[in-house]
Design brief:
The chain has about 475 residues and is an alpha/beta fold. The chain has 16 helices and 16 strands. Strands 1, 2, 3, 13, 14, 15 and 16 form a 7-stranded mixed sheet that branches. A 6-stranded mixed sheet has the order 7-8-9-10-12-11, with helices on one face. It has a 3-stranded antiparallel sheet with strand order 4-6-5, covered by helices on one side. It starts with a strand and ends with a helix.
């Protein structure tokens, strides 16, 4: 496997069973030492860290100095994630994806946005219909047996203030989180890993009296529009959010499965979530068209574990080229919640030490194909105007997804004498002309060892093309 994702969720520290940052980090490091060298199939150390929500435990609305308490909890989480980044991904925060969860919704700001509603007998039917309508500002509290209305939408919109402040601080102002629900997503582009990971907020309109998870439709649509850009072409798409997609009849704190169907339709190959405090694997298929699917996995690390589960986290190994993966569950093995020891756990339906799966390739839309054609035409016009450098910049992102782009890019790079570019985009070669250009470039750049390997490739070694044979003989003699 070429990539490994450390997937942790539900970091909120249970006040009745607190655990310090130092102890938690130490336990995860000790477990990394084990899983990278033990077992029948050692696990690759993490390249990416996904934190799928519930960064803090939260505070009740009537707590003393609730806002300061929120910030204190986020400060503790900030120190933990800073240290986790330093010890697991060399401090590279581009490789850490964070989304909010329902515990990150400030109950203090929510409760202070409410006003009581007097229920008149003749208005009960109309109010009950409003209460269950999408986007309703009404909230019902069973413990108080009272109806409320969100009266201060500005205060309600501040439910994520503390999370937004934490997010900006963690990413050192290189990333920000929008207060606008329609913009609460973030794209983490990792070209060196062939991934584009999108973190979504599944707490749209979520609060302590409306526990259903939801992702704002505009977030899914806007993320899809942005991912159409050529710079994202060929990337495996991963979606991250907090809420699970199924639950018992008496619960409502999960997202509508149709939201996941929309993510599949948008070309995501993998989904990672948390919330339910137990690891799980779901093979969710697309119901509205071609046979695409998305793999959903989940785990928890600090919260109270679900029935028959201990505290746990996931390691997801991926090979984007072969489109295969392995899901490893690491569960707490001992009973001391303040001094965890982690070890492997099989999923209940699977007895092996890991669960192997495969996932779908990136989905290239018809719009992308049309856009690629337009870019090719523009690059051709630049080429015809002798603007080879500008044409090459347009063609580079297309070179691995559009066959027509390769010969034009090769000619542009040859004309501007860009040997490094020829090596980057045409090793290994796919045609006789690419083979000739690559041999020249490797010799010019003094890449003797690689040139020796290239000369042994069947495309060159077995070629009867006179031009290839001439170059092969020339460089074989020089290397002798």
């Amino acid at each position: 496997m070429t990539l490994s994702v450390l997937h942790i969720s539900d970091l909120h520290r249970d006040p009745s069973n607190p655990i310090s940052n130092q102890v938690l980090i130490d336990s995860l490091e000790r477990d990394r030492d084990r899983y990278t060298r033990e077992g029948n199939v050692p696990i690759r150390p993490p390249d990416i860290i996904v934190v799928s929500g519930d960064i803090i435990y939260g505070v009740k609305h009537d707590s003393e100095d609730a806002e300061s308490s929120l910030r204190y909890q986020y400060e503790e989480a900030l120190h933990f994630l800073d240290e986790l980044a330093a010890r697991f991904v060399d401090g590279d925060k581009r490789c850490i994806i964070i989304v909010p969860g329902n515990h990150d919704v400030s109950d203090y700001h929510f409760r202070n946005s409410l006003a009581p509603v007097a229920v008149q007998l003749d208005a009960r039917k109309a109010l009950s219909e409003q209460l269950v309508s999408p986007g309703s500002h009404l909230r019902w509290s069973w413990p108080e047996f009272s109806l409320y209305r969100i009266d201060d939408t500005g205060m309600y919109g501040r439910r994520f203030d503390a999370f937004i402040e934490f997010y900006s601080s963690f990413y050192e102002n290189q990333r920000s989180y929008s207060a606008d629900p329609a913009r609460q997503f973030d794209i983490f582009d990792l070209p060196d890993k062939g991934l584009a990971i999108v973190g979504f907020n599944s707490c749209y309109d979520n609060d302590t009296l409306n526990k259903q998870g939801a992702i704002h439709p505009d977030c899914i649509a806007e993320a899809r529009l942005q991912l159409r850009d050529l710079s994202y072409q060929g990337r495996m798409r991963i979606a991250v959010w907090h809420h699970n997609i199924e639950g018992p009849p008496t619960k409502m704190d999960y997202v509508d499965p149709e939201i996941v169907q929309n993510l599949i339709d948008s070309g995501y190959s993998l989904g990672l979530h948390g919330h339910q405090h137990r690891p799980q694997y779901l093979d969710t298929r697309f119901r509205h068209g071609p046979d695409r699917r998305i793999i959903i996995s989940a785990g928890t690390i600090c919260g109270s574990a679900a029935y028959r589960f201990g505290r746990a986290y996931n390691l997801v190994e991926l090979d984007p080229e072969s489109r295969t993966g392995r899901l490893h569950v690491r569960e707490m093995q001992n009973d001391n919640l303040n001094l965890p020891i982690w070890g492997p756990r099989s999923l209940s339906s699977h007895s092996a030490e890991y669960l192997a799966f495969d996932f779908e390739p990136p989905l290239e839309s018809f719009e992308s194909a049309d856009r690629n054609t337009a870019v090719l035409s523009r690059a051709r016009r630049l080429y015809d105007s002798n603007k080879y450098e500008e044409a090459s910049l347009l063609l580079r992102p297309l070179s691995r997804i559009e066959k027509l782009a390769r010969p034009l890019l090769l000619d542009c790079l040859h004309r501007i004498d860009d040997m490094q570019g020829i090596i980057e985009f045409f090793d290994p070669p796919e045609s006789a002309s690419e083979a000739i250009a690559l041999m020249d470039a490797l010799w010019t750049e003094n890449r003797r060892e690689r040139l020796t390997q290239v000369l042994g490739m069947p495309l060159i070694h077995k070629s009867i093309d006179p031009s290839v044979v001439e170059m092969r003989n020339k460089y074989s003699a020089r290397l002798a």
